[in-house]
Amino acid sequence: MSKNFSRRDFVKNTALAVAGIPILKNSLSEANKDKLSKTKFIPDKPNALSWVDGDTPALQNGTAFGVPWPKGKHAKGTEFKLMDAQGKNVPVQTWITATWPDGSIKWTGHAVSGSNGVSDHYQIQPGKPARPDTAVQVKETSGEVHVNTGKMKCLISKKGENLITSIERNGKKVFENGRLEGTKQDSPEAGSPQIHFTSDISDIEVEQDGPIRAVIKIDGTHKFEEGRTWLPFSVRLYFHADSDAIRMVHTFVFDGDENEDFISSLGVKFEVPMHDELYNRHVRLSGPQNGIWAEAIQGLTGLRRDPGEEVRKAQIAGKAVPPPSTWDRRVSSRIHWIPRWGDYKLSQLSANGFKVEKRTKKGHSWIPSAHGGRSSGAAYIGGASGGVAFGMRDFWKLHPTQIDIRNAIDDKAEVMIWMWSPDAQPMDIRFYHDGMGQDVSGPLDIEPVDGVEPSVPDTPYAKQLDALRITYEDYEPGFGTPYGVARSTDLFLRICDGTPSNTFLGNFARSVEQPPQLSVQPKDFLNAGVFSNMWGLPDRSNKKLSELEDRLDWSIQYYDDQVDQHHWYGFWDYGDFMHTYDTDRHMWRYDVGGYAWDNSELSTDMWLWYTFLRSGDMKAYRLAEAMNRHNRDVDIYHQGRFAGLGTRHNVQHWGCSAKQLRISTCMNRRFHYFLTTDERTGDVLHEVLEADRQLANINPVRKLPGQPFKVEESRMGVGTDFGSAAANWLTEWERTGDPKVKRWIEQAMRSIGESKWGFFTGSFAYDVDTKKMTEPDNPEPRASHLSTMFGLPELCAELIVLIDVPEFKEAWLNYCRLYNAPQEVQQEALGSDYRDPGFVQSHSRITAYAAAMTNDEELAKRAVPELIQDEWGVHANAPRMQKSLSTLRIEGPESINPVDEAPWVSTNDSAQWGLAAIQVSALVGEHVK
């Protein structure tokens, strides 16, 4: 915060924020500007768009992005134009993704085609958009959907197994019979009999029909020959005007029995007609960075006799070679003796190793050709007259994956992009232990320690609660099931009119591996007043503020390194962080109960997103994006008994018995949707709209004694429950404007505001049908340190600005003032029996919020030491660790791989400290000295 920005300014701007006045006025430092723009100049104009990764991409296959607008700035019906770096009006498609309470536009989504070329930067502004020379066209019939981009025609089925029946370019079929396929077996043992299944379409919807972008959503299940259906899926196909590229987003939900249904392969299959002579047919496979493996089906190089330099050069380039009549006759007369290689595969079974093999045809051996570390997952099959380039995003990160090309010597080559490789072991997602006797009944049989009996409540959950004390794992029989979790994969197709050059395919591979993304600048997010009024831009106006910024930057780099050094990759794992570090083993506690995968615990997602919003840090963006794509699918149940709930941290993402709203809350995921318009994330945001209904089925504190409600009663805690449910309602309301959902929010706000103790009430009786919250009889004031750690402060800040409920505002400010107050102040207000739950540093941000909202200088002065008096955070091992922004290199034999270690770091502390530092510096920055 700049030195001349007072708390009085903050309060004034908070009141005016809904009219579009900037909430905070600090600006990016020159160093940070350089970091954002890298080598590209970003104009200092409102809503200037730049590429998230800094450099201008060489290729993009069509992209979408979100833009925020201040309240009242633009009415519905406003048109927007997109200007490139040369001032040219670029064709763009616009839609509204959220509105303010007055009906004005809050967020817009925009799509631009890759056929327009790639500009260093853009600017979005009101105005008449340019029309594309050739608009994408969508036509529906009773059985099919026809999409014409101007460069290709795509026929999409409404029933059956083929999602894409065919694709034509220049009147010639280049793609046929695109479908989903896989196999399962009843045992995880290698060699077990496999059963084949394929896609079966049940529904299709045209979500967008141009002029720049068309989006077709296909829903269905996978079907066995005997009739069983399983693994419900949705596939979205994205088309862009005058483009030869298609993006495919595949999502499936696991709905099998993990003890009997072991997926042994899962992928997308299609056929490519082969029109060229065998020596003019080509395969391309991408390796790491710019590496391309390039060969012909029938090679003309390296032979004992030379066909001629012109022939060799043409084949290596992928171009049609001169007619055989022009070759050296010693070659042309013996061409039938040259092997024809029909089958190819690139398998990536781990994050650090791939291999390329080929064979002439089925029934003959595979010949190893190339090995490497990390393939970018792109390929081409076709000939000099054309074919198909294709690829999978996060190919090596989502291992085990594979690309198969078969029958390339026949009239049609068969392609399989495997999301789960058939060469890998079958997918085994059973719970990782047998319960170790933690049944829900029977006495606790534990020997006294030093003559002292264990202090475990005598409840049916006694064993589980006792086990929680040693491994931090909340176990309960039947709760560690993967039934209902999901996974998404992005695939890309590009129709080519000839064999692409290695340079083009390398650019395509990079665009697949990390799709280019446009974003407005941090000041535009801030000026729009979105995502609360609790954050600001980086401020280095004094030494202490600079130190806070240094640590914020260091933390992002540290976790970016940890992901790679500890190999947080794999089909079900990529995107998540680990929870806590083990200093003795020099690794994260991947195998210790609740200390393993983080699963959004304590708002890790929000820390990463706010870091990007305020700084434009590309590493923060990519970490947050990967985490969002993982957690929205894997850590949330999408059907079954736990649908709508998420799972607390565990050795397996679905392993913990704590199934709670605090993990599935939209508060973590709305950032990704509004910044990118990602439809899959949008699905999940809507999916959890009434996840609060699960409060009638699963009491999140059912195991804890002394609760004011019976286990069978529905209850809503004012912290993680209300914060999560209200975030789900808020997101739906701003996306749809549904007045019913707004009433739910207002009713809950009034219930809390009118209760005796407000946010210190703890829990309310809750009617899941009416959403009515009822204060308990004779409540005693209480608080939990967890209440504010899952987005509640940011949510309340937004609600106070959006909906005028004075009693709610006062209840929240009272909570913010009192939570970290001196004990005598707390007990005077709440009674002598009130017990301070602690975690002062995490709550320094709500002290700062109350200070800024009420212009209370004493509160502001209190907030700063709350943040920095223990500025390294609270950690169980902290007292015996040296704490500094540096790492210790650990190598063999102490560690299996070299790692950079900062023993004092834990993910919970990093997330909570990061949010506190961001918000305290923004709200009361003039007092941070």
UniProtKB/TrEMBL annotation:
Pfam families: PcRGLX_1st, PcRGLX_2nd, PcRGLX_3rd. InterPro entries: PcRGLX/YetA-like, PcRGLX/YetA_2nd, PcRGLX/YetA_3rd, PcRGLX_1st, TAT_signal. It comes from the Bacteria. Residues 515-928 form the PcRGLX/YetA-like C-terminal alpha/alpha toroid domain. PANTHER family: CONCANAVALIN A-LIKE LECTIN/GLUCANASE, TAT PATHWAY SIGNAL SEQUENCE DOMAIN PROTEIN. Residues 136-509 form the PcRGLX/YetA-like central beta-sandwich domain. Residues 47-126 form the PcRGLX/YetA-like N-terminal RIFT barrel domain. This is Tat (Twin-arginine translocation) pathway signal sequence.
